[in-house]
Amino acid sequence: MAPQAPSRKSADPTQAIAPQLLAWYDANHRELPWRIAPRELAKGVRPDPYRVWLSEIMLQQTTVEAVKPYFRAFLKKWPDVSALAAADNEDVMKAWAGLGYYSRARNLKACANAVAAGGGAFPDTETDLRALPGIGPYTAAAIASIAFNRPAAVMDGNVERVMSRLYEIATPLPEAKPEIRALLETLVPNDRPGDFAQAMMDLGATVCTPRRPRCMLCPLRDDCLALAHGDPEFYPVKAAKAEKPARRGAAFVAVRPDGAVLLRKRPEKGLLGGMTEVPTTGWTARQDGATESDAAPFPANWQKAGNITHIFTHFSLELHVFRAEIHQIATPNDHFWAAADDLHGEALPTVMKKAIEAAIPGATRKPHSIRPKRPK
DNA sequence: CAGACGTGGAG
DNA sequence: TCTCCAAGTCT
């Protein structure tokens, strides 16, 4: 027995990460509508998989603040997965309107249908979760760990950033993902894996931020290689991104004397799939400004009402908005009239609300529940 | 694998 | 104004 160097296990950074992070998480708990209070969690209460799933889908590429009201509204309308499965597709799209990435809503409904058809219980393993529509590697791991206490490697944008800095990963994203995942797997604890995952994401969201990280407040500052070497903000290294092209088109807001507006439904697939719109021309890259009213869906006294611009992920759009008062025109095929009072409840994406607002200011605003204009 | 796919907030 | 980007997934 040759004498070994003294055991330094307690000083092994890898072993220390999870406990340090969890201690920080416990001391900095964030109240979120889909989270179980620490007191309940300590008693062994598990989160409702339906709520975990719903929140995770909504949180994909979407900020916490944007999700909160939608999460509450969905939970009130559809308290469990069987209720959501029994809902109309159209009602789900209407409830999702404004949140973006509408394929998520279609997949959400498809997933609810699948789970309900299978008895109403969500799968409790990454592999089985991954097979459901709208659930990719991240969401499968998140649900498995948070709802079912499984030690899965939950890797989102926050975790990638934290790990890139902690280990000073020089490989650019997304190429570095496998490398980061391998390191992450060495950190995931068997005890409280769900809290570990949420702690990593909270840390990325509140301390290890993309710009101006608050390293002085970081529970992992003593282990962070990027900080030790001086420039955490430099990480993660990312590949250069492409320029976004510009597109133009015209939108036509037809208004009846009673204030109703002519709408139609977009194709199920593709941009704003399954959502509602006002009639528009195609959105082309042409720069000649030829978005004239002669391209209107039908002849009318089209008046220019203004221009709106909207930035999508991969292109910018300028829409020339035209308005016309319509009296006796037959409703075109596949179109419908939405009453003025119902506009705010239609499945209108933000870009379409902007177009309608340009023609009829205030038209898509949700009316106040209290109307203090009662006669005496 | 790279591109499609929304929106609103922060700096 | 403008760039970045937020708890990604699908094709």
Automatic annotation (TrEMBL):
Boundaries of every HhH-GPD domain copy: 58-206
Gene3D superfamilies to which the protein is assigned, alphabetical: Helix-hairpin-Helix base-excision DNA repair enzymes (C-terminal), Hypothetical protein, domain 2, Nucleoside Triphosphate Pyrophosphohydrolase
InterPro entries linked: A/G_AdeGlyc_MutY (IPR005760), DNA_glycosylase (IPR011257), Endonuclease-III-like_CS2 (IPR004036), Endonuclease3_FeS-loop_motif (IPR003651), Endouclease-III_FeS-bd_BS (IPR004035), HhH-GPD_domain (IPR003265), HhH_base_excis_C (IPR023170), HhH_motif (IPR000445)
Obligatory cofactor(s): [4Fe-4S] cluster
Free-text comment on the cofactor: Binds 1 [4Fe-4S] cluster.
CDD domains attached to this UniProt entry: ENDO3c (cd00056), NUDIX_DNA_Glycosylase_C-MutY (cd03431)
EC numbers, comma separated: 3.2.2.31
Catalytic activity of the protein: Hydrolyzes free adenine bases from 7,8-dihydro-8-oxoguanine:adenine mismatched double-stranded DNA, leaving an apurinic site
Keyword list, A-Z: 4Fe-4S, DNA damage, DNA repair, Glycosidase, Hydrolase, Iron, Iron-sulfur, Metal-binding
GO MF entries: 4 iron, 4 sulfur cluster binding; 8-oxo-7,8-dihydroguanine DNA N-glycosylase activity; adenine/guanine mispair binding; metal ion binding; oxidized purine DNA binding; purine-specific mismatch base pair DNA N-glycosylase activity
Gene Ontology terms: biological process: base-excision repair; mismatch repair
Family: Belongs to the Nth/MutY family.
Biological role stated in the UniProt entry: Adenine glycosylase active on G-A mispairs. MutY also corrects error-prone DNA synthesis past GO lesions which are due to the oxidatively damaged form of guanine: 7,8-dihydro-8-oxoguanine (8-oxo-dGTP).
Alphabetical list of NCBIfam families matching this protein: mutY
PANTHER family attached to this UniProt entry: ADENINE DNA GLYCOSYLASE
Name this protein carries in UniProt: Adenine DNA glycosylase
